[in-house]
């Protein structure tokens, strides 16, 4: 029998602590849309996306109503365009991005991810064309997200791509300088990118996936924070128990939504991503959880330990609540989307170097960090290389989403609006790394790539 | 049996239960259980209802109850019971 305390608990989580399902993402395979004629290819992908996903938003809204739990985003991920479009004869993929934007608007999703390339070992002609098209594609579309995977534990790091992406990011920043270089907020560089990540900007529908799939990303940092308030001053055992129990409950909601969406859309259920993802809303912050665990500001000594503990307990609690867990599954630590992180930067407690250390134990990496517009291309490539190396050596996913805000410097603030929030510009270490970046070639895979 | 949970919270006044019950009867929703308290002038009710033979889409009932709540000055929420079962039971 349902008990009123449980009903009250669930509804308090939803109403006061920002419990929500962060995203339902439909992955769609575009390999069967291949055509040598660019116009025909565009027509094929438009038709496939708008057919497969035509009910996605409505089904999402119905589920929201049925259970009274908000589903914040409905999104689409597609086969990396550099693969799907490789037989297309054209010089630029910008028209593909525009088609994707149009399809996203038609079905009503807020982002479509997969203007992507996977170049961990080498670049094909198609990969090069895609990367070349990124700045214009992101500047002329609204909802298209792009990512490039430049390394993996099994292949090493493609340093030619890392170099190229430093200038790609800079070019994207320049083309979108009128809106605080927002184009860069829609682009992420990965190492060990998973095929089934439902979270933007890095979502794409990997080649290992079925024709269409439903992936769900759960969230709820506010709920975890609130639960932790009940164990102030208690030891780590109790702290961990509380996080696990809360993560279990949050994940169960995600699993319910995923099953329901998969049934209603007649598309198989893929994975639940156990990430804790913050929003700029007050009380929906990862930084607040870390502070509740015991540091005054994020960045203080002890922060990495607190984050490691949080991540591990979220996974332990969540894994039992869902039959299939995948994606990135960990806590996101973006700067601009998290009020607590923004406060920590403003206080001077948090630096890029500390964030980099934290990424060794979090799910993703350097995320939504605004840096001075004058930052050199090679410096951006250097930041990417460092972060990719962490992922490669530690057999985990890492990513870089930095935004060189053209015309602004440390002390200024960049405004992105909506879920992307705002960010104070963070200082970057300006000592050069040109000689390293200009070497070219690949960093070989580490010895544990031979684990068989 | 498919069941829904209705929660009604707000400042107490005459006729809240009557308004909610009349609405449910109109749409063929049977009430299985009601628990209700008033704490410091605040009305707090939880109902378990049978939504098997409901005459319209679930979402529409959710919207209409929300509107009814606005009209009589309380918050009315209808949710499918699964969310509570899934969250709190192994």
TrEMBL record, chain A:
InterPro entries, per the entry: UPF0210
Annotated signal peptide: none
Superkingdom as given in the UniProt entry: Bacteria
Pfam families associated with the record: DUF711
UniProt record similarity statement: Belongs to the UPF0210 family.
Subunit and partners: Homodimer.
This protein's name: UPF0210 protein HYG85_23100
Automatic annotation (TrEMBL), chain B:
Top-rank lineage group of the source organism: Bacteria
Record-linked SUPFAM superfamilies: ACT-like
Coiled coil: none
Entries under InterPro entries matching the protein: ACT-like_dom_sf (IPR045865), ACT_dom (IPR002912), UPF0237/GcvR_regulator (IPR050990), UPF0237_ACT (IPR022986)
Pfam families given in the database record: ACT_6 (PF13740)
Record domain ACT: where: 5-79
Family statement drawn from the similarity comment of this UniProt entry: Belongs to the UPF0237 family.
Name of the molecule in the record: UPF0237 protein HYG85_23105
Lineage of producing organism: Bacteria, Bacillati, Bacillota, Clostridia, Lachnospirales
């Amino acid at each position: 029998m349902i008990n009123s305390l449980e009903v009250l608990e669930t509804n308090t989580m939803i109403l006061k602590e920002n419990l929500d399902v962060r995203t339902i993402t439909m992955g769609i395979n575009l390999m069967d849309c291949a055509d040598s004629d660019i116009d025909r290819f565009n027509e094929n992908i438009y038709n496939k996306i708008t057919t497969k996903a035509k009910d996605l938003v409505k089904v999402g809204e119905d589920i929201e109503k049925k259970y009274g739990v908000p589903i914040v985003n409905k999104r689409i991920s597609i086969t990396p365009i550099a693969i799907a479009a490789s037989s297309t004869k054209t010089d630029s993929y910008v028209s593909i991005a525009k088609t994707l934007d149009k399809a996203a608007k038609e079905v009503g999703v807020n982002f479509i991810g997969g203007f992507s390339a996977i170049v961990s070992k080498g670049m094909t002609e198609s990969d090069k064309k895609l990367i070349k098209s990124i700045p214009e594609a992101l500047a002329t579309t609204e909802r298209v997200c792009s990512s490039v995977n430049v390394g993996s534990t099994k292949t090493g790091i493609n340093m030619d791509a890392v170099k190229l992406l430093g200038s790609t990011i800079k070019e994207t920043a320049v083309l979108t300088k009128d809106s605080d270089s927002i184009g860069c907020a829609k682009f992420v560089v990965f190492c060990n990118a998973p095929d089934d990540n439902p979270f933007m900007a890095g979502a794409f529908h990997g080649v290992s996936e079925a024709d269409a799939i439903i992936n769900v990303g759960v969230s709820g940092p506010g709920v975890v924070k609130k639960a932790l308030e009940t164990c102030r001053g208690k030891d780590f055992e109790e702290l961990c128990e509380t996080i696990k129990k809360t993560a279990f409950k949050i994940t169960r909601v995600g699993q319910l939504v995923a099953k329901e969406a998969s049934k209603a859309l007649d598309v198989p259920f893929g994975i639940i991503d156990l990430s804790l993802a913050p929003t700029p809303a007050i009380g929906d912050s990862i930084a607040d959880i870390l502070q509740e665990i015991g540091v005054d500001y994020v960045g203080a000594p002890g922060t990495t330990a607190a984050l490691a503990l949080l991540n591990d307990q979220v996974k332990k609690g969540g894994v039992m609540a869902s039959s299939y867990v995948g994606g990135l599954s960990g806590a996101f630590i973006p700067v601009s989307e998290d009020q607590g992180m923004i406060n920590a930067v403003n206080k001077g407690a948090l630096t890029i170097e500390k964030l980099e250390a934290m990424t060794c134990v979090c799910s993703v990496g350097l995320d939504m960090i605004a840096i001075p517009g004058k930052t050199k291309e090679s410096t951006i490539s250097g930041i990417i290389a460092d972060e990719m190396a962490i992922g490669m050596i530690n057999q985990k996913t890492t990513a870089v989403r930095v935004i060189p805000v053209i015309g602004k410097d440390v002390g200024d603030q960049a405004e992105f609006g909506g879920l992307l929030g705002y960010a104070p510009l963070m200082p970057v270490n300006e000592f050069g790394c040109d000689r390293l970046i200009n070497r070219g070639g690949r960093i070989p895979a580490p010895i544990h790539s031979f684990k068989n | 049996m498919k069941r829904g949970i209705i929660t009604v919270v707000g400042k107490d006044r005459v006729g809240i239960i009557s308004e909610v019950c009349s609405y449910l009867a109109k749409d063929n929703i049977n009430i299985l259980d009601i628990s209700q308290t008033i704490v410091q002038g605040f009305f707090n009710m939880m109902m378990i209802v049978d939504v098997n033979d409901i005459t319209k889409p679930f979402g529409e009932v959710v919207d209409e109850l929300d509107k009814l709540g606005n009209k009589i000055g309380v918050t009315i929420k209808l949710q499918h019971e699964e969310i509570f079962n899934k969250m709190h039971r192994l």
